Amino acid sequence: DEMKLYSPRVMKEILEKYGFKFSKGLGQNFLIDGNIINKIVEAADIDENSGVIEIGPGFGTLTQGLCKKAKKVVAIEIDKSLKGVHKETLKYDNIKIVYEDFMKIDVDKLIEEEFAGMDVKLVANLPYYITTPIIMKILEDKYKISRIVVMVQKEVANRLNAKPGTKEYSAISLAVQYRANTNVTMIVPSSVFMPRPKVDSAVIALDILKEPRINIIDEKMLFEVIRGSFNQRRKTILNGLSNKFDCSKETIKEVLQNVNIDPGIRGENLTIEEFGKISDEMSRFFE
Ligand code: SAM
């Protein structure tokens, strides 16, 4: 019979047995609600042909749900002190656990080596201290992942999902729009975690587009332009870009005028299409 890993009693017992101590610094809040776990697994749309990358299995409650549905799961956990726990909680034939910092993982290589012929999904209840860098890493590279389902702080979900002109709209909103369609699946109260975090969470699904939303000359340039425009939030795009690219305001003004964009506008009011135009003009200008 299968262990109910999400039962707080089972969790406490096993964690104590291995002398595990929760690390706040690593964002360790483990799920203790079977319903939420089922809903995350459902949102990931996993079947017997799916390969799943999980970032941060922790105790393994969500991982268990993934292993039961997927062809193969590769779970990446930074905390080696969970090794003993995993021997007990994750006795599945279709799992591989890599004890490493996700930020150091070569995801392309991993997909090639572990998931040949499979449809690859990424699922994670993300550690909050490093949510943005992880999502940027996934979005800036062209991995062959079809869907990403992540649990994040509610505020972060709002930023991932934000539209131009709102205060949540930021560089990461644009990175998401460039690559994916988003769908906030549910808001999750802090009571479903052990220990409880201070804030509510949300589960967001990102469906990766077959082709990026806009066609541009140079992707790296696009992301630099976006970052430059949001570096100092209340500054104009003219200031942001001349700082970022270390060139004169006259130059940037010329670039912006060539694509009919007001140099006095702020990044938070520009659409992804407008960023695309600026980026392409920058590429041509600095060729
Ligand atoms: N998936 C589990 C769950 O839902 O109950 C645990 C989620 S917990 C919020 C985040 C997990 O990510 C922890 O197990 C933590 O040790 C791990 N983690 C933190 N930083 C990481 C990193 N850079 N790379 C991989 N795992 C990391």
TrEMBL record:
Which annotated residues bind S-adenosyl-L-methionine?
A: 29, 31, 56, 77, 101, 125
Q: Which residues form the Ribosomal RNA adenine methylase transferase N-terminal domain?
A: 36-210
Q: Which reaction does it catalyse?
A: adenosine(1518)/adenosine(1519) in 16S rRNA + 4 S-adenosyl-L-methionine = N(6)-dimethyladenosine(1518)/N(6)-dimethyladenosine(1519) in 16S rRNA + 4 S-adenosyl-L-homocysteine + 4 H(+)
Key word Methyltransferase present? yes
The EC number(s) attached to this protein equal 2.1.1.182
Q: Look at the named UniProt entry and state the broad enzyme category this protein falls under.
A: transferase
Keywords (A to Z) from UniProt: Cytoplasm, Methyltransferase, RNA-binding, rRNA processing, S-adenosyl-L-methionine, Transferase
The organism's place on the tree of life at top rank? Bacteria
Q: Where is the protein localized?
A: Cytoplasm
Could you tell me which Gene3D superfamilies the record lists for this protein?
Ribosomal RNA adenine dimethylase-like, domain 2, Vaccinia Virus protein VP39
User: Which NCBIfam families does the UniProt record give?
Assistant: ksgA (TIGR00755)
Family to which this protein belongs: Belongs to the class I-like SAM-binding methyltransferase superfamily. rRNA adenine N(6)-methyltransferase family. RsmA subfamily.
Q: What does this protein do?
A: Specifically dimethylates two adjacent adenosines (A1518 and A1519) in the loop of a conserved hairpin near the 3'-end of 16S rRNA in the 30S particle. May play a critical role in biogenesis of 30S subunits.
Q: What is this protein called?
A: Ribosomal RNA small subunit methyltransferase A
* Protein's organism: Sedimentibacter acidaminivorans
